[in-house]
Amino acid sequence: MRESSPTTGIIGPYPPFRGGIAQFTQRFHKALQEADHVTTGISFQRQYPGFFFPGASQIDAASNPMFDAPRVVDSVGPWTWRDAANRLIKADVDRAVFMHWMPFFAPAYASIAARLNKGGIPCSAIVHNALPHEKQPFASALTRRFMRHCDHIVALSETVRRDLIAMGVESDMEVRPHPTYDQFGSCVERSSARQALGLDPDAVILLFFGLVRPYKGIDTLIEAMGRTTSQPHLIVAGEWYQDRNEAEGTIDALGLGECVRLDDEYIDNDRVALYFSAADAVVQPYRSATQSGVVQTAFHFGRPVIVTGVGGLPEVVRHEQDALVVAPEDPDALARAIDRMMDDGFRAQLTEGAAQARNRFTWDHFIQPFLTR
Fold first, then answer.
1. pLDDT, tens only, 309-361
2. How far apart, in whole angstroms, are the C-alpha atoms of residue 335 and residue 256?
3. What is the domain partition of the chain in residue ranges?
4. Separation between Cα atoms, residue 73 and residue 75, nearest integer Å
5. What does each C-alpha distance from 160 to 105, 170, 177, 212 come to in angstroms?
6. Dihedral of CA 228/254/217/62: which sign?
7. Region 292-296 average pLDDT
8. 225 contacts 341 by C-beta, under 8 angstroms
9. Rounded Cα distance, 287 and 310, in Å
10. Is 190-357 the same fold as 7-180+361-371?
11. What DSSP string runs through 62-120?
12. Any idea what DSSP says for residue 36?
């Protein structure tokens, strides 16, 4: 290591790519810079071939990237993998950090990391998911192949760490929970946020936020809405990666048309604060999970959450202090939790806890192992 400020290379998607991984990559980059690290980012030119991607677009045209990270890596273009490694070698980085969330990218990452190792550059991996939410062939083998080139791994939940151990990964490993997402600005005044979104100013509003995919259990949530004894409103804000016809049919059959609203669109960064500021609580009825940036976004805006007890979700909340934890795929249990959240006094107690929770998961704490290596 040189005596001057260390240089860290970061490989992962950056905005204008959509999604939580790109947001995490950019925020991690910013945290290192604020700690006087010199940082070099390498982004993707293409994450997925078009026929693999279920959404409308992989790019958020409205995003305003913080950093000029060259878009080099093509996940299916081996000729770009050498270029990415050479750029980091030329930048004289002391360490490279990869964002890993899907085995599909492991061949590219393994090739880049192997070339960096050969040049004497050690590699770390920040692992969001050890295994994909939907089954993929050779997932464990591909992930192991990449991880062999990393001497240091940060798992974002204990669930992720156990998955890595189960697949035979033996690198030095530690668990550091997903930090609070604070890049979406400050909370907007509640009535103003609701007016901007055309929401009832007096209703208790629950928010389901993010890409709608089968593992996230939106069907369970809609069923639960029909079984509540209270009268909450629900807004589902996010692009649908599954057929929404079934959800609409259930909403109609249960007579929920007046209290469930589906905003079927990708929520641009400059509108995230509106949705969380307008909501009274956030609901994540997931069937499976590893960890989630949605919880940490909710805590940034001081909003309590209802989560299912799957994966790493219960690791970062405190039941009956800033959250309610319920069984997955159980509409009755979820309905009871929603009814508890409707009690003004109890909800105020959880809201106070959520405002304090934002301080449990700071970026300063998260980046510590990257400052000492």
1. 999 999 999 999 999 999 999 999 999 999 999 999 999 999 999 999 989 99
2. 14
3. 7-180+361-371, 190-357
4. 6
5. 17, 14, 10, 22
6. negative
7. 93
8. no
9. 7
10. yes
11. T---SS---EEEETT-HHHHHHHHHHHHHTT-SEEEEEE--GGGHHHHHHHHHHHHHTT
12. T
Q: Is residue 309 exposed (0-12), middle (13-18) or buried (19+ Cβ within 10 Å)?
A: middle
Instruction: Tell me the two tokens of residue 307.
Output: 């989560």
Neighbouring C-alpha atoms within 13 Å toward the C-beta of 240: 14
Indicate the SS3 state at residue 133: coil
pLDDT value, residue 65: 78
H-helix or E-strand containing 273?
Answer: helix 269-278
Q: Which two tokens stand for residue 45?
A: 């030119």
Listed in sequence order, the DSSP H helices in 119-239 are: 139-147, 158-166, 190-197, 218-225
In this structure, are strands 172-175 and 152-155 parallel, antiparallel, or unpaired? Answer: parallel
Spatial separation of the C-alpha atoms in residues 341 and 75, rounded to whole Å: 44
Residue whose C-alpha is closest to residue 77's, from 48, 40, 50: 48
Scan for tokens 């790019």, then name that residue: 59
The CATH fold of domain 7-180+361-371: Rossmann fold (3.40.50)
Rounded-to-integer distance, Cα 148 and Cα 313, Å:
28
Which tens digit of pLDDT belongs to each residue from 159-194? Answer: 999 999 999 998 899 999 999 999 999 999 999 999
Any idea which residue has 């290379």 for tokens?
Answer: 9
Dihedral through CA 316, CA 318, CA 321, CA 322, nearest 10?
A: 20
Say how many C-beta atoms besides its own lie within 10 A of residue 16's C-beta: 17
**Quick count: other Cβ atoms within 10 Å of Cβ 2?**
8
Cα–Cα distance measured from residue 110 to residue 16, given in angstroms and rounded to the nearest whole number: 24
pTM exceeds cut of 0.90? yes
- CA angle, residues 359, 363, 365, in degrees to nearest 5: 80
Instruction: Tell me how far apart the alpha carbons of residues 147 and 127 are, in angstroms, rounded to a whole number.
Output: 10
For the domain covering 190-357, report its CATH number. Answer: 3.40.50.2000
